Amino acid sequence: MKLLLLAATGLTSAAALSVAVAQTTPKPVPKSAAEGIAEYRKMLEDGNPAELFEAKGEDLWKTARGPAKATLQRCDLGLGAGVVKGAWVQLPRWFADTGRVQDLESRLLTCMEALQGFNAAEISATPFDKGEQATLAALAAWISAESRGQKMALPQAHAEEQRFYQLGKRAFFFRGGPMDFSCASCHGEAGKRIRLQDLPDLTQNPGDGIGFAAWPAYRVSSGEMWSMQRRLNDCYRQQRFPYPGFASDVTVALGVYMGVNARGAESIAPGLKR
């Protein structure tokens, strides 16, 4: 019927058909910024540069280094000496030998000092991506990759693990600094974003491969591998807070809080970030 009406107005059959098709073809729904970013990341996943850091980390784990000329293959990450697979999704956790709750980076510092003879305090004071800090980033990439696809399962049986969860919760909601920010200012409720970046609600389980379950990660914008310690350090910078000490109790506690909240979420670490 439409074609007859259009023909009656003097349009040729080809033109009439073109107009009719244009009127009946649904217009494509524009993609949201979040969908566009997700597609961008998906395209990069096949060649995620994190794989290069994973390979480096595995080599560093197995290579005799440091004053003691020893490997890290006897390092206990919580599941027994030398056991790597599954360790990442259960960190931070309590370690009896140090009497502390430790995350991956602080535990690696313990092993590098005890087994290889490195000075943990010196490494802690080294800038990110320099010297043995670069070693820690590569080790974190490989160790986390060995648990890829597993569910976050941070233990909470020990009293100190429970205390650190509460400490992390307090730190997460603590507001201060010149901008009166807290971690919760960005990650305390659903539906927030900064620029084009959606911000997950980390007070609850954000889901598979989001938040804690995506770090460490390769940052495309800087071309660097970022550990969770570095991610938290940069969060404090954005809040205009003083930098926390590397592997300090407050950063470990924040890891406990976010990790326990993410229980059951699938780890995709090392992830890929903008």
Radius of gyration: 24 Å
Quickly count the domains: 1
Low-confidence stretches: 1-9
Shape: globular
In spatial order, strands of the major sheet run: 6-5-7
Number of strands: 7
Average pLDDT over all residues: 88
User: What's the architecture in CATH terms?
Assistant: Orthogonal Bundle
Helix amount: 40-55%
Given this structure, which CATH class is correct?
Mainly Alpha
CATH fold topology: Cytochrome Bc1 Complex, Chain D, domain 2
Distance between the termini: 52 Å
Biggest pleated-sheet summary: 3 strands, mixed
Structure write-up:
By secondary structure, the protein is mainly α. The N and C termini lie far apart (52 Å). 31% of the residues are buried. It is globular, with a radius of gyration of 24 Å. α1 packs across α2. Helices cover 45% and strands 8% of the residues. It has a three-stranded mixed beta sheet with strand order 6-5-7. Strands 1-2 form a two-stranded antiparallel sheet. It has a two-stranded antiparallel sheet with strand order 3-4. The chain has eleven helices and seven strands. It has a single domain, classed as Cytochrome Bc1 Complex, Chain D, domain 2, CATH 1.10.760. The longest helix is centred in the middle third of the chain and has 15 residues.
Can you give keywords for this protein?
11 helices, globular, Cytochrome Bc1 Complex, Chain D, domain 2, 274 residues, two-stranded antiparallel sheet, disordered N terminus, mainly alpha, 3-stranded mixed β-sheet, 45% helix
